[in-house]
Amino acid sequence: MSKAVRYRRFGGPEVLELQEIPEPHVAPGEVRVRVTAAGLNPMDWQITTQPDMAARFGITLPAGFGSDFAGVVDEVGAQATGFSIGDRVYGAAIGRSVAEFVLVKTPAAHLWRTPQGVGDEVACTLPVSGLTAVAALEAVGLRAGDTVLIGGAAGGVGVFAVQLAKLAGARVIGTASAGTFGFLRELGAEPVAYGPGLADRVRALAPEGITAATDLFGREAVETALELGVAPERISVVADGPAPPPGVRRTGALDVDPGSLERIADAIGSGAIAVPIAATFPVERIREAVTTQAARHVHGKIVITL
């Protein structure tokens, strides 16, 4: 038997159960990963509360939980390609990641080798958040010399977007609560409080104007950027949430080359990008972990250890 977090009805953290299930084994063409850490994303708990969203990802009840994971390949099926027993890996398996074992079909589009110098608790935070950050910046054509407004800059996607924008040579202004300002400055952003009057505060920081924007939480940064004269095609939003204004680009993790993630992992290994871990919880405390993240007051990523 093995452990996995599952749920039998839609709802909040209370529906999540740590269950004993039969230990899975590989079929031909599959590899098995012994999971050591899983990174939480807002989409994970949103799927458990929204049947329509679950259906979009092909998830039906009863279901597993989580998307991102890291660990070690410990079984390789006949005809499986690309990985060997003992390989350290990280990847994405929507609705299956918070479990002792994850089966992955090969060739694997969403399984990568973990670089030297990158621990599992960091690697497991990368797939959804890292690719979403890349997509958000690519959608606006970010380039050196831009001044970009990032809405939700202190969140799990924001910490990647801020650092990637800085590496690209852009000036970054990030919206956040006052309590996260020091944290954002350490990442290289100029923080600004969200809420009424945001456009005036951004004008004060950048009187010469901003040239691009991405909103990783809600639509406030979108409306502010439009008010400040940014062209809609240089504004992006992540896929979840209400439809954006005409011309604003809606994007997500599936819109970019998965090779982008390997470049982020290499940058982490070299020290060019830091991944702040806000909190780590053992899998037995999964409900507490989800409750903490859903409150949206964490600075960085939340990790589950197995």
Tertiary shape: globular
- Given the helix and strand composition, which structural class is it? alpha/beta
Helix content: 25-40%
Low-pLDDT residue intervals, each spanning 5 or more residues: none
Distance linking N and C termini: 15 Å
Note the run of SSEs as H and E: EEEHHEEEEEHHEHEHEHEHEEHEHE
Number of strands: 16
Mean pLDDT: 93
Q: What integer value in Å does the Rg equal?
A: 19 Å
Strand content: 25-35%
- Report the sheet with the most strands, covering strand number, pairing sense and barrel closure: 7 strands, mixed
**Tally of separate helices:** 10
Descriptive labels:
306 residues, alpha/beta, seven-stranded mixed β-sheet, six-stranded parallel β-sheet, globular
Topology of helices and strands:
Blueprint: E1 2-7, E2 17-21, E3 30-39, H1 42-49, H2 51-56, E4 63-64, E5 68-76, E6 88-92, E7 101-105, E8 111-113, H3 120-123, H4 127-139, E9 147-151, H5 158-167, E10 171-176, H6 181-187, E11 190-193, H7 198-205, E12 212-215, H8 220-227, E13 235-238, E14 249-251, H9 259-270, E15 277-282, H10 286-294, E16 301-305
Parallel strand pairs: 9-10, 9-12, 10-11, 12-13, 13-14, 15-16
Antiparallel strand pairs: 1-2, 1-4, 3-5, 3-7, 3-16, 5-6, 6-8
